[in-house]
Specification:
The protein is an alpha+beta fold and 652 residues long. 23% of the residues lie in helices and 26% in strands. The strands form six sheets. Strands 10, 11, 13, 14, 15, 16, 17, 18, 19 and 20 form a ten-stranded mixed beta sheet that branches. The chain has a five-stranded mixed beta sheet with strand order 3-7-6-5-4, with helices on one face. It has a four-stranded antiparallel beta sheet with strand order 24-23-26-27, with no helix packed on it. Strand 4 (320-327) and strand 5 form a beta hairpin. Helix 1 crosses helix 4 and helix 2 packs across helix 3 (40-52). The protein is flat.
């Protein structure tokens, strides 16, 4: 009778070596497989526990070796066993903290911590968790194994089977159908991103101190009571008295806030938020700054608003003070911590009137670090901005009117502007024409750059969004690619005017810049005139962005062609583009219209329409009822590109 192979002591040592070597990847696998309903702190602990308990004991049955694997190289067998044990723990109904521990609510162990909150580092893992949150746990596991750990489809199916997942093959197919954001995958694969590294902050120190005092007081009271009862009967419990709060120290000490010299911006190669000096009339108000820091560390009932993908965790070190002052009857403090800026607001010192708004500032620069929204008027009709110290002039425009003249916008010596009109929150989210779309146009000081003006728009977040424009290519595929330019010239304003109202569709705080790229132009059938194909890309702070292809006619509202979420398309790393749609001419006839970017030298359509073109554009009659059409573009340097779709496809 044959028995399954089992691990001996030497094999367990080899498995330990594999586990240590692969520890960050295994923790990442467990973290993204675990349900996000547990919270980041609990998932971090459970992920580390799942990996640390994956080491087999002597005598553990070994997983069958992968097909075709030889006996000389056992690392694959050891890694398969460890991975399957990690997956089994992460896929368990109650997680690896199931059983008695889960029922009585104790923290998982080992490892476990007291008095600390843990979370993974920045670098994309929380964005990945958010992207995968709607998928079942086995699908999330398959996604990580195949896309991040480079495990083959067959081996992923096998691993899920060893972990006890139902229908492993179907699970892998479902995982492969999930949209993949290349920027996100690159972020997770960067060497500096180590999923096994965690950040730590203390929990509520005052509450812990009170509980500790109450616990010791209770024990002392119990001892005294038992002694007294033996002689005189019961006596009332003594009052332990109020507990004193901890003295401000470290990151929460206003005396240790970072303050940048007022002229640092004019003598540095890094012109961003790190060069902002501390401004405002209350930068020396220690009590105000202490309240802002304490509220950030323990918001309590304070209303907290964080931009998508932004953590609200307190700062790990003393943050940089950007502003502290009174504006329109409200006291405001702006602080910067790494890639975050926080705006603390209060009316008086009562906790009920406090707010905390947090935005991302990854890779900000001269334009994206040029302004912050300081305050909004009731109803949101206007706002005041705090301008960067390198801004020499400011003005306002109406983006819907290409010929609208700039109107000067005054600002004080501390950078606070006069009230400026802003689009109402959620204005024209359906994309219909709006009455106007106010923007601000800023001009940099000649001390850092000459003749540089740029446009920002307020989309309801703490950080205004930078608007740019990329004109049509020169015509030759050999010509250098056009780069985004500022949306200040006549051509840029003409391109933005008919689609300015579509900015209302974007989520507040999610984007850092929006670019309109005119990538093709053609005459339309039936005398409909000339049309320009454009791709509007809204780039997020975290890297991924959303793209919408539109057909802009000589008159009328631009027509949507297609859109994709969390895609590299129409950006620096997605320069090959092909798009098409079914279009009805003014004569009532239906056509397939398609267009490609400058490297596309031919287009082929199959399906409901069978046609071809040796150019970057295609217009072909669409016979019969609506149907599916597949588009393929031929690239000048070889290779092909498919049409952009809603899942972010279209890559060559």
């Amino acid at each position: 009778m044959s028995t399954s192979p089992r691990f001996g002591s030497a094999a367990v040592e080899h498995a330990e070596a594999v586990l240590v070597e692969q520890y960050p990847r295994l923790v990442r696998l467990a973290y993204l497989t675990l349900p996000d309903t547990r919270g980041r702190h609990t998932r971090v602990l459970l992920a580390h526990k799942a990996v640390q308990r994956a080491l087999p004991r002597t005598g553990t049955p070994a997983a069958p070796a992968p097909a075709g694997a030889g006996t000389a190289d056992e690392s694959g067998t050891h890694l398969t066993l460890v991975r399957s044990r990690v997956l089994r723990a992460a896929l368990a109904p109650s997680g690896p903290a199931g059983g008695t521990w889960a029922r009585i609510g104790r923290p998982p162990g080992p490892p476990f911590v007291w008095g600390l909150r843990l979370w993974p580092p920045a670098g994309g893992i929380d964005e990945a968790a958010q992207t995968l949150s709607g998928a079942p746990a086995p699908v999330r596991a398959a996604f990580v194994l195949h896309h991040l750990d480079d495990v083959t489809e067959d081996e992923t199916v096998r691993l899920l089977g060893l972990a006890g997942a139902a229908d492993p093959a179907g699970t892998v197919r479902e995982a492969l159908a999930l949209p993949v954001a290349e920027e996100l995958l690159r972020a997770l694969r960067r060497p500096e991103f180590d999923a096994s590294v965690v950040s730590a902050r203390p929990t509520d120190l005052l509450r812990r101190r009170r509980r500790a005092r109450a616990g010791w007081a209770g024990l002392a009271t119990l001892a005294v009571t038992l002694t007294v009862l033996s002689v005189r009967g019961p006596s009332p419990e003594p009052d332990p008295g109020p507990a004193a709060g901890p003295a401000p120290s470290g990151a929460l000490d206003p005396a240790r806030l970072q303050r940048v010299p007022s002229d640092a911006w004019s003598d540095t190669a890094r012109v961003d938020f790190t060069a902002w000096p501390a401004r405002g009339g209350r930068t020396g108000d220690r009590d105000l700054l202490a309240r802002a820091l304490r509220t950030w560390a323990a918001p309590g009932t304070t209303r907290v608003s964080a931009a998508p993908g932004t953590t609200a965790e307190p700062p790990p070190r003393p943050p940089q003070l950007l502003y502290a002052g009174d504006v329109d009857g409200r006291t405001l403090v702006l602080l910067r911590d790494g890639d975050r800026v926080v705006r603390y607001g209060e009316v008086g010192t009562a906790s009920g009137g406090r707010t905390l708004d947090i935005t991302r500032t990854d890779d900000s620069g001269v334009t994206t670090a040029a302004a912050l929204t300081l305050s909004r008027a009731p109803g949101g009709a206007s706002a005041r901005y705090l301008l960067a110290p390198w801004i020499a002039a400011a003005a306002t425009r109406d983006l819907t009117r290409a010929g609208d003249a700039a109107r000067p916008l005054a600002f004080a010596a501390d950078g606070v502007t006069a009230p400026a009109a802003v689009p109402p929150a959620g204005a024209r989210a359906d994309g219909a024409p709006c009455a106007s779309w106010p923007v601000i146009e800023l001009t940099s000081s000649t001390r850092i750059v000459e003749k540089h003006s740029f446009v920002l728009t307020d989309l309801g977040g703490l950080s205004p969004v930078h608007l740019t424009y990329t004109p049509l290519p020169d015509g030759s595929a050999a010509a250098p690619a056009r780069q985004p330019r500022e949306a200040t010239g006549p051509e840029a304003r003409a391109a933005w005017a008919p689609q300015a109202c579509r900015l209302g569709e974007l989520r507040p705080g999610a984007y850092r810049a929006v670019n309109v790229w005119d990538f093709a132009a053609a005459q339309l059938p039936d005398g409909a005139g000339r049309a320009v194909w454009s791709c509007t890309r809204a780039s997020g702070w975290a890297g991924p962005g959303d793209a919408t292809v539109r057909l802009r006619l000589e008159a009328g509202t631009p027509q949507d062609v297609t859109r994709a979420r969390s895609t590299a398309a129409c950006g620096r790393f997605g320069q090959h583009l092909l798009a098409g749609f079914r279009w009805r001419s003014p004569a009532g006839r239906w056509y397939l219209l398609a267009a490609g970017s400058r490297h596309v030298t031919g287009i082929t359509a199959t399906g409901a329409v069978r046609a071809g073109s040796s150019d970057r554009t295609l217009a072909a009659p669409w016979p019969g009822p609506d149907g599916a059409v597949s588009l393929t573009g031929i690239l000048a340097g070889g290779g092909t590109v498919t049409a952009l779709d809603g899942a972010g496809g279209g890559r060559d």
